[in-house]
Design goal:
Blueprint lengths: L1 E6 L3 E5 L5 H5 L4 H9 L3 E5 L2 E5 L2 H21 L4 H12 L15 E2 L4 E2 L4 H12 L2 E5 L6 H14 L5 E6 L15 H19 L2 H9 L3 E5 L11 E5 L7 H8 L7 E6 L13 H8 L6 E5 L9 H17 L1
Parallel strand pairs: 7-11, 7-12, 8-9, 8-10, 10-11
Antiparallel strand pairs: 1-2, 2-4, 3-4, 5-6
Length: 325
């Protein structure tokens, strides 16, 4: 980005250089309209030049917002209204510049925040998903395995890298079975899928989530519903994978189609299968490590990002388990 000073107190001209102005302005100038509505300066666009007019400090703030927009556009090759609104909100609360070096690991812009790795384990997770078509994320509760997986999927969908998001879980929790629960099939299944719904609603407007669910662009289904499918151009997440059997895990992993990515998350310390059944996650970590294109990421208690007590609770349980061995 090049800038030419016209009048330091009242004007600033910013050049888009070789960027396509349409990519910056958005469809029907949507991004420009957001800027004009939210920023206390006058904004004029002529060709590849953007001119800002207003009080000096307001011009500086607007220039910073535009610089962030250009940084995001350069990285993503795509800039939408939600990105612009998020950048403006973050600029108002003094959040670190999303365009600065070191923040290329931003996964997703939400309406009020940026989702990015915040621990060494999450950084390794980010790097793995970037380069691998299949990633296994293993570790204790509270490390962001599922939340970040959904963020990766939403980001890929928004950036048009995939056409569909598939989120699935085995319907086995804490020793319970579906047959013992009240209600019809949907009422039995939905409680197991709630964490996936929660993550989606945290990242996208509620009406957009409902629309994408209705269009089947996002599917949240129990693992049994995956049998017989081949999923091309999709981002596929298997959550709570420690509660699969080896047969179920093989069935899931072989659903992967052309131009798809898979993330498998699980916690080997919370297996709810009957003791006589081997976990499909344990089995897969043993036999798939030599397979090229699959990456295993291991989180530790140091990566816990929930309340500080969660980390202490995990350490206490680990200590007790080791004492009994």
């Amino acid at each position: 980005m090049e800038s030419t000073q016209i009048n330091e107190a009242q004007h600033k001209t910013i050049s888009l250089r070789d960027l396509n102005p349409m990519d910056f302005l958005g469809v029907n100038d949507t991004n420009l309209k957001v800027l004009q509505q939210e920023l206390p300066v006058e904004i004029f666009v002529r060709g590849n030049d953007i001119t800002l007019t207003g009080p000096e400090q307001d011009i500086i703030n607007a220039e910073n917002v535009i610089a962030e927009m250009l940084a995001v556009l350069t990285r993503k090759k795509f800039l939408d209204k939600a990105d612009v609104i998020t950048i403006i909100k973050l600029s108002r609360v003094g959040t670190q510049s999303v365009g600065e070096p070191g923040l290329g690991s931003v996964i997703l812009f939400t309406r009020s925040d940026v989702i990015k790795p915040r621990t060494p384990g999450q950084e390794a997770y980010f790097d793995a998903v970037k380069v691998s078509d299949m990633t296994f994320a293993l570790g204790p509760a509270g490390t962001g395995k599922t939340y970040l997986a959904v963020a990766f999927a939403v980001s890929a969908f928004k950036n048009r890298e995939v056409k569909k998001i598939i989120l699935t879980r085995p319907a086995v929790e804490s020793g319970e079975r579906l047959g013992f629960l009240p209600g019809d099939l949907k009422e039995k299944i939905d409680p197991y899928l709630t964490p996936l719904y929660d993550a989606l609603y945290d990242m996208l407007p509620a009406d957009r989530v409902r629309q994408l669910l209705d269009q089947k662009a996002i599917e949240i289904v129990p693992l049994a519903y995956m049998r017989g499918r081949t999923l091309d151009n999709a981002f596929i997440i298997l959550d709570e994978a420690q509660n699969t059997t080896p047969i179920q895990m093989k069935m899931f992993l072989t659903r992967m189609g052309v131009n798809s990515k898979v993330i498998v998350t699980g916690d080997l310390s919370q297996i709810d299968l009957p003791s006589r059944e081997e976990s499909g996650l344990v089995h897969s970590t043993r036999i798939l490590k030599p397979v090229e294109g699959i990456t295993f990421v291991h989180f530790t208690d140091a990566d816990v990002v929930r309340h500080r007590l969660v980390r202490d609770i995990i350490l206490a349980y680990d200590k007790e388990t080791k004492r009994k061995i």
